[in-house]
């Protein structure tokens, strides 16, 4: 049986106080390099290991992180969570995942529950309903580690990881224009989300570049992001009932994009012959759809990894962190048959 050593044993052997030994083992900047070296070498020699249960009780640390997302079944979020877990478990942290289902009330309840379970930090992607960020601001002001990813809080000064939403939307819209479509409708998530605003701006910029006026009737917000099929069906029907109905759809939500193809087929429309589709989705089977979908793909796994590294570094920082960064990754446009009508001439401006 291995002999179990404590901080008191190390302190006694080295003639130091227990608080000095504790701070040295934790890498505190208050302890000199020579003392740290002495303590760490002795701890290694006797194979000292801290008691994780005692550590948790003493520090109120759980070595777990809370994750707040809209929906795990969403292709983007499932891939981001895989990225989160790949880093967290290697760094000794458990991951507790909660879903908001685009509800602000559920989001706040989830956050309260995670805090009550003494998670050491939060990784958050905001719900479509969320406009009041006071609960996050309160936690952040108290020094609680929070990192936002994808759907970020613009006014809270902490680490954030997102993609170049403007460019992704611009490229997808321009692809539709270049393949001959000019009446391009835009289906998007709740206007509350910063990503919706950035993607709308990219869509508008592509239209402007090619001399196509923005038509407000072509802009549709689905506040539940495709989770409620009836909402999407109603939205598409409204577009199809317009006197000057669109010949293409640019969609900026993962679930919305994949659901739209199903709904258009249900309504008896052919893609792209009757209406073309390009959209944001991380679906691994987008190329197996009929027709294969042109998509803007986000590096979700990498986003999850980066956000988790940022959060754990915040949690483990020995000093208060006052400088924060926003990491912006690039999207990838993959063009397939859903935007290319056979025989359609490229007559874009």
Automatic annotation (TrEMBL):
Keywords: DNA-binding, Transcription, Transcription regulation. It comes from Mucilaginibacter mali. SUPFAM superfamilies: lambda repressor-like DNA-binding domains, Periplasmic binding protein-like I. Residues 5-59 form the HTH lacI-type domain. It comes from the Bacteria. GO terms for molecular function: DNA-binding transcription factor activity; transcription cis-regulatory region binding. The keyword Transcription applies. SMART domains: HTH_LACI (SM00354). Residues 5-49 form the HTH cro/C1-type domain. PROSITE patterns: HTH_CROC1, HTH_LACI_2. This is LacI family DNA-binding transcriptional regulator.
């Amino acid at each position: 049986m291995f002999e179990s050593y404590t901080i008191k044993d190390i302190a006694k052997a080295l003639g130091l106080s227990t608080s000095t030994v504790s701070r040295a083992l934790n890498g505190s900047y208050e302890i000199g390099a020579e003392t740290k070296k002495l303590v760490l070498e002795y701890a290694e020699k006797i194979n000292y290991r801290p008691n994780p249960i005692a550590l948790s009780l003493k520090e109120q640390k759980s070595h777990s992180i809370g994750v707040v997302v809209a929906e795990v079944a969403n292709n983007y979020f499932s891939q981001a969570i895989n990225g989160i877990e790949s880093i967290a478990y290697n760094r000794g942290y458990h991951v507790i995942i909660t879903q908001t289902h685009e509800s602000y009330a559920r989001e706040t309840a989830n956050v309260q529950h995670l805090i009550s379970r003494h998670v050491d930090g939060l990784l958050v992607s905001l719900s479509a309903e969320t406009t009041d960020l006071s609960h996050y601001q309160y936690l952040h002001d108290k020094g609680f580690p929070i990192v936002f990813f994808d759907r970020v809080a613009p006014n809270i000064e902490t680490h954030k990881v997102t993609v170049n939403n403007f460019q992704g939307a611009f490229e997808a819209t321009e692809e539709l224009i270049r393949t001959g479509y000019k009446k391009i409708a835009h289906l998007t998530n709740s206007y509350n989300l910063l990503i919706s605003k950035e993607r709308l701006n990219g869509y508008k910029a592509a239209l402007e570049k090619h001399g196509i006026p923005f038509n407000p009737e072509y802009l549709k917000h689905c506040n539940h992001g495709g989770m409620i099929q009836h909402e999407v069906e109603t939205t598409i029907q409204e577009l199809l009932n317009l006197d000057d109905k669109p010949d293409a759809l640019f969609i900026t939500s993962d679930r919305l994009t994949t659901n739209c193809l199903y709904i258009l087929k249900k309504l008896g429309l052919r893609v792209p012959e009757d209406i073309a589709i390009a959209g944001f989705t991380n679906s691994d089977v987008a190329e197996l759809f009929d027709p294969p979908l042109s998509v803007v793909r986000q590096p979700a796994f990498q986003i999850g990894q980066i956000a988790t590294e940022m959060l754990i570094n915040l949690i483990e920082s020995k000093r208060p962190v006052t400088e924060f960064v926003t990491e912006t990754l690039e999207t990838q446009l993959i063009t397939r048959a859903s935007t290319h009508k056979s025989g359609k001439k490229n007559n874009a401006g």
